[in-house]
Amino acid sequence: MPDIFIENKTELPAQETKIVHPSDAAKGSVDHLLHTKKHTMGLLSAYCVRPQGLSFVNQEEDEIIILFLRRHIITNVPWVLAVVLLCFIPPLFSLLTLLPTALPLDIPPSLLFVITAFYYLIVFAYAFSQFVSWFYNIGIVTQKRLVDLDTSNILEHNTAAANFSELVDVKFTQNGFFQSFFNFGDVHLQTEAFRANFEFIAAPNPTKVTDIISDLRIATGGKE
Amino acid sequence: MELASITDLIFTNGILLFKIPILILLLVYVIFTFIVVNRIRAFNRILHIASAHASVTIQIVAIIQFLLALSLFLLALVIV
Fold first, then answer.
1. What are A197-212's pLDDT values in tens digits?
2. Which of A67, A79, A138, A205 could form an S-S bond across to A149 if both were Cys, CB 3.0 to 4.6 Å?
C-alpha cells in the first residue's frame, strides 16, 4: 500500500530575518514624525502632532515642535457647568424676593443693577481664569527636549524644560471611566534625581504620547 | 448724630451697607482684571499660538473684561 502522507524532504531556503535595533526603529519613527505634514491647530486643540503656527520663548532656530499637548477638553466640563449654574442664581434670587415670606429689601434699582452686573463680571472672571489656566497649561515636545508650561491659576506660572538624555522613565496612567472612555490620562516623565519630574496631566492619547516620547528618548541616545 | 439717624443712614440710604463695600470691591476687581491683562500679555510672550488667532483673541477678551470692570466702577461712582 502506498504511503499517502509523505514528509516533504525538500527544505525551503531559510528566510533572512532582518533584526532591527530598537534605536534604529526609534530613529526611523522620529524621522517620520519630523517629515510629517504640519497640522493646523484650532483654538481648543488639546493634542496636535507637528502643529503649525506655534512657537515658544527660547525656541532654537532648528528646533521643531513635534507634539503639542493640553489637558483634554472634557476636563473643562465641571467649571463650565458651575458657571452655567451660577448664571441662573440672580434670576432665581429675584423670583424668591417675590414670595410673600421674603424679607423686604428696599434696594434702589440703580444699586441692584450695579450689584447684578458686578456678580456677572465675577462669574465671567472665574470662567475666564479657568479657561486661561487650561489654555496656557501646555506640554511641548520638540526633537531636542520637553517643555512644560504650568499654569495652576491665572497668577501663577511655571516653565520647565528637560533634555531627553535626562529622562529615565516614561509612563502613563489611565484611571476611571471617563479617562478610559475619552482616552486621556496622566503622562509621567521621570527625570534624573536632581531634576523635578514632569507630568502632562489629562493628556489626550496617552499611549501615542508615551510612544512618541519614548522614541525620541531612544533616538537621542537616552536609556532604553 | 443720633442713633436713629445713623441707622437711617445705614438702612434707608444704604450708603454704608451697600455703596462703599461695592465700590471697594469693584476697585479691587478692576485691579485684578488689569493684572490679568498683564499676565496674558506675559503668557503670549512665552507662547505664541498663531493659528485661529488664539493669542490675540484671548488678549482682546482680557482687555474687554478690564474695560467692562472699569466702566462698571465709574458707573457705580456716578449712579449709586
1. 788 999 999 999 999 9
2. A138
List beta partners, residue A142: A65
**pTM for the complete prediction?**
0.81
- Assembly ipTM: 0.82
Amino acid at A205: N
Give the mutation candidate from A103, A118, A119, A151 for the B interface (greatest B CB count, under 10 A): A118
Are the C-beta atoms of A149 and A138 separated by less than 8 Å? yes
User: pLDDT tens across A11-52, in order?
Assistant: 656 566 666 666 677 777 777 777 778 888 888 889 999 898
Strands A51-52 and A39-40: parallel
For residue B51, the chain A residues in CB contact (below 8 A) are 40-42, 51-54
Q: List residues bridging with B5 in a β-sheet.
A: none
CB contact under 8 A, A54 and B50: yes
What is the spatial distance between Cα B24 and Cα A170, in angstroms, rounded to a whole number?
A: 50
